[in-house]
Amino acid sequence: MTTYLEFIQQNEERDGVRFSWNLWPSSRLEATRMVVPLACLLTPLKERPDLPPVQYEPVVCSRPTCKAVLNPLCQVDYQAKLWACNFCFQRNQFPPAYAGISEVNQPAELMAQFSTIEYVVQRGPQLPLIFLYVVDTCLEDDDLQALQESLQMSLSLLPPETLVGLITFGRMVQVHELSCEGISKSYVFRGTKDLTAKQIQDMLGLSKPAMPTQQTRPVQPQEQAFVSSRFLQPIHKIDMTFTDLLGELQRDPWPVTQGKRPLRSTGVALSIAVGLLEVTFPNTGARIMLFTGGPPTQGPGMVVGDELKVPIRSWHDIEKDNARFMKKAMKHYEMLANRTAANGHCIDIYACALDQTGLLEMKCCTNLTGGHMVMGDSFNTSLFKQTFQRIFSKDFNGDFRMAFGATLEVKTSRELKVAGAIGPCVSLNAKGSCVSENEIGVGGTSQWKICSLDPTSTLGIYFEVINQPSAPIPQGSRGAIQFVTQYQHSSTQKRIRVTTIARNWADVQSQLQLIEAAFDQEAAAVLMARLGVFRAESEEGPDVLRWLDRQLIRLCQKFGQYNKEDPTSFRLSDAFSLYPQFMFHLRRSPFLQVFNNSPDESSYYRHHFARQDLTQSLIMIQPILYSYSFHGPPEPVLLDSSSILADRILLMDTFFQIVIYLGETIAQWQKAGYQDMPEYENFKHLLQAPLDDAQEILQARFPMPRYVHTEHGGSQARFLLSKVNPSQTHNNLYPWGQETGAPILTDDVSLQVFMDHLKKLAVSSAC
Amino acid sequence: MSQQGYVATPPYSQSQPGIGLSPPHYGHYGDASHAASLPGMMKPVGNLGAAAPGVMVPPGPPLPGPHQLGPNAAHASGPSPQRFPGPPPVVSAAPTYAQYQPSTQSTYASPVSTSSVTHLGSQLSQLQVNSYGSGMAPPGQGPPCPPLAASFQGPPRPPQPPQPSILQPGSQVLPPPPTTLNGPSASPLSPPVHRQDGLPGPPPLSAQYQPPPPPGPVMGAGYPPQQQAANYGPQMAGAQLSYPGGFPGDAEQMAGPLPPQKKSDLDCIPSPIEVIENDRAIREGQVYATNTRGQVPPLVTTDCVIQDQGNASPRYIRCTTYCFPCTSDMAKQAQIPLAAVIKPFATIPSNETPLYLVNHGESGPVRCNRCKAYMCPFMQFIEGGRRYQCGFCNCVNDVPPFYFQHLDHIGRRLDHYEKPELSLGSYEFVATLDYCRKNKPPNPPAFIFMIDVSYSNIKNGLVKLICEELKTVLEKLPKEEQEETSAIRVGFITYNKVLHFFNVKSNLAQPQMMVVTDVAEVFVPLLDGFLVNYQESQSVIHNLLDQIPEMFADSNENETVFVPIIQAGMEALKAAECPGKLYIFHSSLPTAEAPGKLKNRDDKKLVNTDKEKILFQPQTNIYDSLAKDCVAHGCSVTVFLFPSQYVDVASLGLVPQLTGGTLYKYNHFQMHLDSQQFLSDLRNDIEKKIGFDAIMRVRTSTGFRATDFFGGVCMNNTTDVEMAAIDCDKAVTVEFKHDDRLSEDSGALIQCAVLYTTVGGQRRLRIHNLGLSCSSQLADLYKSCETDALINFFAKSAFKAVLHQPLKVIREILVNQTAHMLACYRKYCVTSTIARQLILPDSMKVLPLYMNCLLKNCVLLSRPEISIDERAYQRQLVMTMGVADSQLFFYPQLLPVHTLDVKSAALPAAVRCSESRLSEEGIFLLTNGLNTFLWLGVGSPPEAIQGIFNVPSFAHVNTDMTLLPEVGNPYSQQLRMIMNVIQEKWPYSMKLTIVKQREQPEMVFRQFLVEDKGLYGGSSYMDFLRCVHKEISQLLN
Fold first, then answer.
1. How many CB pairs lie under 8 A apart between chains A and B?
2. What confidence tier does A194 reach under pLDDT thresholds 50, 70, 90?
3. How far apart are CA A362 and CA A669, in angstroms?
4. Domain spanning A520-622+749-766: which superfamily?
5. Helical (H) or strand (E) element with B275
6. Does domain A623-724 have CATH number 3.40.50.1000?
7. Closest approach of chain B CAs to the CA of A185, in angstroms?
8. Where does the Sec23/Sec24 beta-sandwich domain lie (chain A) (predicted)?
9. Which residues from chain B sit within 8 angstroms of residue A257, using beta carbons?
10. Closest-CA residue to B810 (of B603, B653, B1022, B612)
């Protein structure tokens, strides 16, 4: 543990946790003066191939209000077989099974390297996974065909006992019954009528407890608990039927006249899907996968009318309060999302269309339930196909990289309280002693429900130090936080992962240097960005930017070294040096800037930003730029217009896009066909290198990025030009007079200007 | 014959004046009105002629005789029975004549004169004159046998009953021979019969009637010219006879006759059998040309060949009267409804010419600019053919250039006979796009089959039966004549409390089922593949029909919906933009939570109260609005109901009724007994001729207009009759009222135009034109009446009123109007010395009887014993009936089959619907268009039983069968053949019930003996007649 960098990295690898501060200010007042809140990015299910789950249940503190899990930080009296809870200090007897415990014979959860440990709970019914496909049939034939293939492919990836169901929609909504033979049967609903859950259940004949059609099959006792629904059947039983059913899917037959959008009843279809699962399989892992090729155009949740001459709402419309259907639609989907979350199910949205599809309105369905949101141009693209396939990817154990119905509980030691969380979760409204009154993100609770998780799902969790200066914390003592994540593993096991971490307290007055050194500027940037994006969902864009700027200035004032009123004297320590730059790019990012993005795109970007882990989030904030040339091996270069050179190939990764950009000269060479000449094989290799690297990124990322291959002057070069720092623009190019980089035609401020201004403000005593 | 006599005589007297005999009559009558009436007599002449030789005489005599007899009969009937208990009918009649001659004579004075047979007439008149001051009855009989005459003379004194009775037959018989004209051939036969029969009783009826028939044919030969020249149908003349049978005005006489009546001598009151047989005798098998305006067509019961010569065939339009009064005052005076019963798609027998189709190309049919009437024979071309004057509104129109044609010397277009619209009463136009919805050519119609798959239907095998049958029936979907396959598309829905739609698209390996559970707001879940061409999707459809019974085999759903399925069907047709027909197979009260949900309201307590009408109305308004919606979208609904208990037919039947569909009802359906009836109904209904999405407009010439429409119609304004569909069995009754004065010259013209879509998806216009004459003489009006059409009108208007008025009021109105009509006749058209005599116009001879049958119908009879469903069913049934249907429905046909002549293909002669006509040794077949009964007397001959049932004796006959066993003997074959012949004429398949005399089921059978006192109330014919007479007497006073 030599440097904080290593410490941070180790902690992240072991516990999936990164804190903004790794030394904690010991009093409330000081903590608030630190500007960046005490917070962490938690990846609850971070993949730990080296951590086999233990096959027993955790030992918990017997105090009903605490129930913290036994962990390495606990004091243990091996003689008396007692342990003291490090959160509430309750002394607990070990259970009988721990009779043989001793210093040399410790259970895993007491070993320091098991600060994160996973338990397998053997109790309770093990329910199969459930996948309910909700498929839009108002698609072009190619699209529908491609989608059918993808869906059929997905069947082959699912374990045979998985329950599947199918709902298709267009003008009407069809719920397909899967248990009948000889004739395919479906229940049809009008797409315009909002139905209550009760109505849906009555209409589907689900309200009666015992269905006459229920099959009696030899099953384990725990499986009798659920009503075998006619609409959800295990794959192994209906494999052929289901494949045929998918194969026979027809385009919505209702005629669409010229100048009209097809009538698409997404709102009702989702509502029915939610209602169906709600009554048949509450509180078990289930995915509703919505595949849609356009905006909902009728019924509850409609986003736009069917007149093509009326375009779908833009940010401009929204600002002008001109989006007729938006509020109502959002209310509808929010209601659905909350119900889904309450049932422990999740909703994925796969929206593939050239125009908007109403993701803005539907975003809470995914955001509140932890579902995926995928946006593409067409189902007939590799982007969709591979992304969809990746959902079913398996981990080192051969299990799906997905978990269901998780609850995350946060326990803190007394000096701390939890203020809230930002991520794909909903509050469970669990009040308790460790819940802060100040809410940051989704607060007011110490427990959250995360209906769907994957190994990269990451939450930002914000804390508040409540210790008063009057009650100083003893030197060298540590604050502790325990994260308890209970979830349904994709193997249908119930598991509990417990992560307990501790950090030292430090007195700001005396130990500011130490605290500064323990600052994790990357985590801080992401955590602040999450806050900003969270605010942007409900506030006007400019307000959020102003807030972010003020925070940055305050941080610089607090931790910068400068002379008053002397911008040139301003210096930041290494631990803070990158932070302003992150903020600069964040300000320009699509998460906060809606210009040039549709509301759907903004929602899409924000969705992913609020769930990815730190590394990915940083890429989103500040894209990575690699340069390939004959001058040496590929190197990361500044995300700056000055990096755009004629004899370079650039590879930019913005998380959502992978852009390969051939410099002017390179592009000319390529056109001239040098790469095909044996004597210029090295050029061929040069061209190939970024492609290979891009492929590597493409393989690993979910969702699959948009892959752009362009060159100097190409129309798609805009993807690159819009991201780089406009250090050279048409305004300042000529004075510089040298041929480095490419000028960007923009009035945006460059990083240089931004920094200058920042320095000026930071040193100013005015603010 | 005696009856005829009764009836016939008066008319003759009136109408015949034109004929030689008239003078004397005039003398008698003295009144100008009588003179006027004489022309009418012409018809009677015809009859007489028909009766011809043999008959001729009888008529002659009858005329006088009848008149006398008529009155006598009534009176005499009383006395006669006493004296002639055994043979009451015949005998009684005779005696009555004798007795009442005096009174009748006066009335008959005119008749005599009228007697068409001039020769006879003259003779008679002379005789009469000579012999009697009045010369009335005596003359008729007189000529033949003086003794009779004497006896008649005697009759004036009531006391001599026996003689008269004898005399009558004698008189009738005798006259023939004497009549020089026709007499010889016919007379010989008839006389003996008369005599013989006369005494026996039942036979007498036939005997009496028989005489006329033979003459009929003869007449045809000999008299036609005369008849035509003089007046129209001979029958009419006969019919026109006032009802001489009138009850004597004198209290004494009344007293006298009444008691005898009680003893029920039917023979002395007008017999429908006789009327029918008379008409048949004259017209059966003949060609009836429609070339004359105001011509009264043969009765519906008479088979003849109709030749369209400028007026629509009576198969299409029948009027209550063929002569309209010139003024509304006259119409009010007579109170005879002016109405036409229009059956625009009536089936035409194969030996008549089908309608010509006229195609004027893009310009469409030629129409009057002002009133929009279509080109027809009533248009008068003028100015060398350049213009034409509309016969309806008199507007002068230019002839469109493409339509121009020169006129010949009599002002007729040269192409008169080449163009159906110029020379025919009925024809069709091809409609242009202007006549189509949204100006787009219509799509061919679709049939949607909707099967109730609730528990009971599955359990009793009905669903399986339907599915099996559909496979066969679908092969026979109606198609255009020239097409090879039907253009009709089919769709399938099953339902209980939810709806299951089926996708049977031809490219599917197996059908797809789509369940719609949102019955509160039903919709069609699929577009493509729901309505398909049967041929293309045959395998998928068969697959489906095979699966349906099994699919729901485990269903235990008992609740059903009704309105939502109709809505679904309508929506489906709407979505497919085509008209069509829904076939709904339903069995229970729709109690599931859905629009149109019904509760059981079979409340016997309401019967016979002012609230009874509620029972005939639908429970909620939704049925009415749904029916309107259906009509608006060309969706016809036919329902097959299989109720095992109360199902609220009043509600369920409304939509079928108003959308031109049919409601079939099979109470307590049992697979082994009723499936045959159901299946043949289904087959017939699917195969029958039908037009869709129809709008009918009835245009009239100036002076009157159509004011009211009865039937399966929907009207959004006062003139356009909208019908989702109209088939060959549906009739619309239209009532007319005066606007202004009608002129005798131009007459009253009616043009009925029906715009519709054919089964092949063509838009067409069907035009029926009918010209009626007009007269300022009431007698003409009475002369031209058609009792069957009148009853049709009365039944429909009464059954319509049932919804709004207490039944008691309706019954009173009917009786009053009957009395009024007859009183008016009595007052203005008949000179009678005896004021209180009941005299019926010949054309309305059986009106009181039929009216009584109508009054006794269970709809108008407030009796809790009869299920309200059955009453509602019959009410709705009658609303769409044509004249022939209503005639049989109200007066069933009773055939003695034990006398079946195995060698003859002819039906046995019907007998009157009265218990007195049954005999223990007899077997009778009774049909009313809905039911068939085979009644077995306890003494039925074992050979007959053996022949029919193949069992040794009466006791062995198992009545639990609805089909006669196929026994290989001629008797059985003959009987079954007869039943088939009868069945073929009626739209509903009739369920056969075997009834043994003196067994419980006989009660049902007896309800149909409509001349007797009703089982559940309703007076006997005789009682009613007396009642009517009393009313008339009061009116006259």
1. 66
2. confident
3. 47
4. Sec23/Sec24 helical domain (1.20.120.730)
5. helix B272-283
6. no
7. 4
8. 403-506
9. none
10. B612
A82-84/A75-77 β-pairing: antiparallel
Rounded to two decimals, the pTM is 0.80
- Alpha helix segments (H runs only) across A320-367: 326-343, 359-367
B805 CB-side CA count, 13 A: 14
Q: In Å, what is the CA distance from B838 to each residue of B10, B52, B264?
A: 11, 28, 17
Six token digits for residue B766:
């069907």
Q: A210: closest CA among A227, A186, A189, A194?
A: A227
Domain boundaries, chain A: 1-47+396-468+477-507, 55-113, 130-208+227-391, 520-622+749-766, 623-724
Instruction: Tell me what percent of the residues of chain A surpass a pLDDT of 90.
Output: 58
How far apart are alpha carbons B732 and B711 in whole angstroms? Answer: 5
Closest by alpha carbon to B93, among B62, B72, B64, B109?
B72
**Whether residue B79 has a cis bond before it, omega within 30° of 0:** no
Query: What pLDDT, on a 0 to 100 scale, did the predictor assign at position B160?
Result: 38
Q: Which stretch of A19-23, A733-737, B380-384 has the lowest confidence by average pLDDT?
A: A733-737
User: In this complex, which of A190, A250, A255 lies closest to B523 when CB atoms are compared?
Assistant: A190
Contact predicate B589/B523, CB 8 Å: no
Architecture (CATH level 2) of domain A55-113: Roll (2.30)
Half-sphere exposure of A450 (CA within 13 A, CB side): 33
Residue B880's nearest CA partner among B1018, B724, B753, B742 is: B724
Top pLDDT among B814 and B826 is at: B814
Contacts of A125 (CB under 8 A, 6+ apart): A222, A223, A225, A226
Q: Considering just the CA atoms, what is the radius of gyration of chain A in Å?
A: 28
What is the SS3 assignment for A531?
helix
3-state helix, strand, coil in chain B (%, to 5): 45, 15, 40
**A184 at B interface, C-beta within 8 A:** yes
Do B636 and B661 meet the contact criterion of CB atoms below 8 Å apart?
yes
Which range has the worst mean pLDDT, A131-140, A746-755, B147-156? B147-156
Contact A212 B554 (CB under 8 A): yes
Residue B869 structure tokens = 């469903």
User: Residue B512 and residue A203: Cβ atoms within 8 Å?
Assistant: no
Give the fold, CATH level 3, of A130-208+227-391. Answer: Rossmann fold (3.40.50)
Dist CA A586 CA A584 (whole Å): 5
Please state the separation of Cα B567 from the chain's center in Å: 34
C-alpha–C-alpha distance, residues A92 and B516, integer Å: 60
Distance between CA atoms of residues A538 and A533, nearest Å: 9
In Å, how far is A245's CA from the nearest CA of chain B? 10
Q: Yes or no: say if B900 and B932 are a contact pair by the CB < 8 Å rule.
A: no
Closest CA to A767 of A515, A543, A555, A536: A555
Radius of gyration of chain B (CA): 29
Question: What kind of fold does domain A1-47+396-468+477-507 have according to CATH?
Answer: Immunoglobulin-like (2.60.40)
Helix, strand, coil percent values for chain A (each to nearest 5): 35, 25, 40
B522 neighbors B499 (Cβ within 8 angstroms): yes
Q: What is the pLDDT of residue B70?
A: 37
Whether B732 shows a pLDDT value over 80: the answer reads yes
DSSP-based three-state secondary structure for B775: strand
Task: Tokens for B384, please give them.
Answer: 């060398």
Q: For chain A, give me the number of helices (H) and strands (E)?
A: 22, 29
Q: In chain A, whose CA is at the least distance from the CA of B528?
A: A253
ipTM of predicted assembly, 2 dp: 0.84
* B540 vs A: CB within 8 A: no
